[in-house]
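Example for tutorial group B:
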């Protein structure tokens, strides 16, 4: 085997190793400035990624009671809907379609192409009841009832506090382009800390009850003739039996 002048076999004796061959060096100390700069750049990169992937919001209002209260802080994942589609049960933050500078937090109920019906405060999707264990008080009365067809790339959202929520019942469905992301973590106050999970729904919910309209018979009103005053009788009024008068009567009849 032919060897170059600057190489030595691995099994060569130590005396045969050329002392003039360059050897790798290990630097024991690094510049403090360089270390600091690398740390700052790493922190900045992580901070930028976190801001791109997530956003932080504070809850204001009672529309999501009892699950979210005013002054609670949440982390919203923007990345969730870049990598996947919104799902039923997600708590989402979106720009209010009427005033995009305002942000709302609601629960996503209806998906594109579905029909959402609210009857007696309960929600039916495509004619099947969805079980909502996170609801404390269902909306009662006809003011909450209705039916909506969700268009392509749109979503139907409702507040958990159904009787006091401004949601898709009022302003209609929300386009996907307005959705900021999915709420993932509630981190303030510490007592409310927790990871926000998506509830599961029974695909075999009860069918939408059929409402049978009740027929109320129309009562035909009857008129009762009221006797006129001062003896002035209309032509259709039954004539009264004249009172016998003396032959020399000159007075008027009343």
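The residue assignment follows.
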């Amino acid at each position: 085997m032919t060897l170059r002048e600057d190489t030595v076999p691995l099994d060569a004796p130590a005396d045969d190793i050329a002392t003039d061959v360059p050897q790798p060096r290990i630097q024991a100390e690094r510049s403090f400035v360089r270390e600091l700069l690398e740390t700052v750049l790493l922190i900045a990169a992580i901070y930028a990624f976190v801001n791109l992937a997530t956003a932080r919001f504070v809850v204001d209002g009672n529309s999501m009671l009892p699950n979210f209260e005013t002054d609670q802080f949440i982390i919203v994942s923007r990345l969730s809907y870049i990598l996947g589609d919104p799902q039923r049960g997600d708590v989402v933050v979106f720009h209010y379609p009427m005033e995009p500078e305002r942000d709302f937090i609601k629960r996503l109920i209806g998906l594109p192409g579905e029909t959402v019906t609210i009857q007696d405060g309960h929600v039916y999707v495509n004619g099947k009841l969805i079980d909502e264990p996170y609801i404390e008080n269902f909306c009662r009365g006809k003011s909450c009832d209705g039916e909506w067809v969700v268009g392509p790339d749109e979503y139907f959202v409702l507040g958990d506090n159904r009787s006091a929520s401004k949601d898709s019942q009022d302003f209609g469905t929300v386009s996907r382009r307005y959705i900021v992301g999915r709420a993932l973590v509630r981190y303030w106050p510490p007592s409310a800390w927790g990871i926000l999970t998506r509830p599961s729904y029974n695909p075999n919910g009860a069918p939408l009850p059929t409402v049978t309209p009740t027929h109320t018979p129309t009562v035909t009103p009857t008129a009762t003739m009221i006797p006129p005053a001062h003896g002035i009788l209309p032509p259709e009024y039954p004539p009264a039996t004249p009172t016998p008068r003396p032959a020399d009567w000159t007075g008027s009849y009343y």
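The first strand starts at residue 54 and ends at 58. Compare this with the pattern of hydrophobic and polar residues in the output above.
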